[in-house]
């Protein structure tokens, strides 16, 4: 770092790193006094030639602990509890990304160095360069600083997906600092078919999109007909693994209205089974996407620098092919035309019939309510 600082690099402005559960991204936006060659040289030193001493670690612990303390607000705490609930039976639920005070204070430098040497290898990395550069010169600089680094066999990573089971779990989340009053019914399922970077995979993702939009609109239409004590009803769908997904129906409720909220959720699920999405509802969702495709076909490809960085990150760094907006629109058009009402309803019913289920309820602040048990859930389902 002294080398960078002596060349007018500022941490946070010109270089930074972000770590998620899956990866660490090093970002470099060099100052005007630096060029691509200097950036690649500094990056190669960080990635392949670092020696982590105990003194370095001891100095860094103070910074990490300050960061940990800054993330102990109610929002972070509740998000952590939700993650532990929704991602149960996976490594993601074990600990926060930053670690615990105990691990931060006790991990030895040797263990970090071992991790670094195991995972910081070229066959476990992707390099993305965005900017006004000469491609041939950039390739030569990459060879100079990276070609000599040898690949290594990586440990097996078979822990990305939560273990799906035919189980109903009931989790109570509560923090005296949080005023949120909510209950959710969460269904977890495998969505491997929608992950393929093929035309069939794209078709499945478009089908997912239309089904979720139709389901969202159906629930929105019920906002004026909710049970007493239920204030809102929404659906959210999110990735909880490489191929595993969680679909959650969330009811915002009065202080003690959690049972009514769950009954409302089960009532809507029953209504969807008796009155599935109609042709008119499907046409409406297709019209929205058609308007987007028509607009995309006219896209000139112009983007500012930040949008290019984001676009490349969302495609190349995610192992997805880069396609222009017109190319996406042309390939999507026949898929949109071919999606049928039966497919949309089958997709929604498949989600709602998933066997791995979680009921997650949150009383506000320190409010005491009667616990919701597995039998409570079964009784409310039958009542709906």
Could you walk me through the main structural features you see in this protein, from its secondary elements to its overall organization?
There is one protein chain. The protein is globular. α8 packs across α12, α8 crosses α13 and α9 packs across α14. The protein is an alpha+beta fold. The strands form two sheets. A five-stranded mixed beta sheet has the order 3-7-4-6-5. The chain has two domains: 146 residues, Metalloenzyme, LuxS/M16 peptidase-like (Cytochrome Bc1 Complex, Chain A, domain 1); 216 residues, 2-Layer Sandwich (Cytochrome Bc1 Complex, Chain A, domain 1), CATH 3.30.830.10. Helices cover 47% and strands 13% of the residues.
Give a summary of the structure in a few sentences:
The chain has 384 residues and is α+β, with helices and mostly antiparallel strands. It has helices at 2-6, 36-48, 54-70, 74-86, 101-106, 109-119, 135-146, 199-220, 258-274, 279-296, 305-315, 325-338, 341-352, 374-383, and strands spanning 15-19, 24-28, 168-172, 182-190, 230-239, 244-253, 356-362. Helices cover 47% and strands 13% of the residues.
Number of helices: 14
- Give the CATH class of the largest domain: Alpha Beta
How many structural domains does the protein architecture include?
Answer: 2
Strand order of the largest sheet: 3-7-4-6-5
What Rg, in angstroms, do the CA atoms define?
A: 25 Å
Structural class: alpha+beta
Tell me how many strands there are: 7
Instruction: Report the average pLDDT across residues.
Output: 93
């Amino acid at each position: 770092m002294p080398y960078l600082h002596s060349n007018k690099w500022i941490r946070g402005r010109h270089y930074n790193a972000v770590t998620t559960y899956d990866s660490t991204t090093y970002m470099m936006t060099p100052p005007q006094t630096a060029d691509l060659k200097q950036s690649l040289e500094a990056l190669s030193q960080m990635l392949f030639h670092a020696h982590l001493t105990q003194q370095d670690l001891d100095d860094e612990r103070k910074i990490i602990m300050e960061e940990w303390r800054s993330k102990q607000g109610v929002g972070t705490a509740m998000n952590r509890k939700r993650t532990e609930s929704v991602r149960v039976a996976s490594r993601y639920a074990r600990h926060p990304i930053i670690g615990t005070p105990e691990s931060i204070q006790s991990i030895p430098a040797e263990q970090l160095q071992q991790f670094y040497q195991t995972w910081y290898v070229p066959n476990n990395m992707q390099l993305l360069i965005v900017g006004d550069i000469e491609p041939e010169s950039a390739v030569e600089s990459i060879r100079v600083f990276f070609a000599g680094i040898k690949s290594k066999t990586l440990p097996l990573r078979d822990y990305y997906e939560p273990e799906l089971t035919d189980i109903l779990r009931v989790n109570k989340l509560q923090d005296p600092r949080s005023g949120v009053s909510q209950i959710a019914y969460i269904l977890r399922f495998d969505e491997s078919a929608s992950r393929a970077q093929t035309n069939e995979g794209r078709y499945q993702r478009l089908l997912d999109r239309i089904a979720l939009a139709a389901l969202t609109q159906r629930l929105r239409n019920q906002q004026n007909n909710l049970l007493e004590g239920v204030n809102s009803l929404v659906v959210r769908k999110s990735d909880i693994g490489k191929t595993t997904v969680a679909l959650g129906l969330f009811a915002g409720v009065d202080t003690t209205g959690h049972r009514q909220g769950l009954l409302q959720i089960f009532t809507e699920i029953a209504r969807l089974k008796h009155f599935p999405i109609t042709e008119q509802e499907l046409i409406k969702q297709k019209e929205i996407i058609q308007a987007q495709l028509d607009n995309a076909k006219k896209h000139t490809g112009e983007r500012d620098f930040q949008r290019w960085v984001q676009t490349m990150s969302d495609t190349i760094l995610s192992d997805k092919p880069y396609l222009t907006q017109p190319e996406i629109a042309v390939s999507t058009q026949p898929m949109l035309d071919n999606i049928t009402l039966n497919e949309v309803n089958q997709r929604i019913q498949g989600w709602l019939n998933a066997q791995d289920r979680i009921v997650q309820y949150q009383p506000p602040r320190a409010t005491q309510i009667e616990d919701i048990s597995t039998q409570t859930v079964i009784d409310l389902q039958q009542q709906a």
